[in-house]
Amino acid sequence: MAFSGATHYPVPVEAVAACFVDPAVVRARYDAAGDRDLEVLECGADGEDLVIHTRRTVDVEGLPGFATKVLRPTNTMEQVDCWDAPDADGARSGTFTIDVKGAPVKIRGTMRLEPAGGGTHHTVRGEFSVSVPLVGGRIAAWAEGPAQQRLEAEFAFHAARLAD
User: Fold this and answer.
1) Are 11 and 120 in contact (CB under 8 A)?
2) 62 CB burial (10 A radius; 0-12, 13-18, 19+)
3) Residue 39 in contact with residue 55, Cβ under 8 Å?
4) Burial class (CB in 10 A: 0-12, 13-18, 19+), 46
């Protein structure tokens, strides 16, 4: 199942990218989401590319009964965001992966930052894969809602940070 979203920030792409690789901002974003035990394993430039690699504990609220054999209410998630070097116009494309430790769940997607109207247009598209016969599709369909809410909260968090 998929989730996606887009938002606009009133600052240039490089200011958004710099915010994304600021370890203090990364910590604040996950703290605001209620995540715990955050480890920032890598956060910064790799040449002109950018990498943010984190591990954190996440509580899942409202876990449906059919999902409890696969997911726990508390999970460790390891996430890697990779942003490519800027295009000629300053835009950046990226990918992300989230591995739910101890569960057959993978989340993958793409991201894009593009100059737009004196600011930045940010798009995210993600997809769940749950490799469990019979209930995997139902779990992925359920997870779409919380993932969409989380994405919207992260957009709002960054918009508030970048408005300062």
Assistant:
1) yes
2) exposed
3) yes
4) exposed
Residue length of the chain? 164
Confidence of residue 36 (pLDDT cuts 50, 70, 90): very high
Burial of residue 99 (number of CB atoms within 10 Å: 0-12, 13-18, 19+):
middle
Helices (H) and strands (E) counted in the chain, each on its own, are 3, 7
Determine the Cα angle at 51 with ends 150 and 159, to 5°.
Answer: 40
What residue ranges do the domains of the chain occupy? 2-163
Distance CA 102, CA 116 (A): 41
CATH architecture of the domain covering 2-163: 2-Layer Sandwich (3.30)
User: What average pLDDT score do residues 83-95 get?
Assistant: 97
Q: By C-alpha distance, which of 5, 10, 96 is closest to 50?
A: 96
Tell me the per-residue pLDDT of 106-117, one tens digit each, with 9 for 90 and over.
999 999 999 998
Tens digit of each residue's pLDDT (9 = 90 or more) over 55-83: 999 998 888 888 887 788 899 999 999 99
The pTM for the full model equals: 0.92
